[in-house]
Design goal:
This protein has 79 residues and is mostly beta strands. Helices cover 13% and strands 37% of the residues.
Length: 79
Amino acid sequence: MFTIEHEFDSTVITLVDDGGVPLQEDVIVNSFTECVTVEQYDARTDTVMKITLSHAQVRDMAAALDLPEGVYAIRERGD
């Protein structure tokens, strides 16, 4: 399950683990103009872990989910 909310400066996507036990903490994705952050609470350290990705890294990650093992580069096509 997930939710999408539009804030003043970002779009916030919350991924809720509604699968089988054990359940993982929610994942919060904030999409800003300049970057994307991914956050998840870590109960072991009682902190929120955050990573920051460029939009190009998010594009590459989305493409990589459907590809076999290997090394790839995405090239923009000229019209």
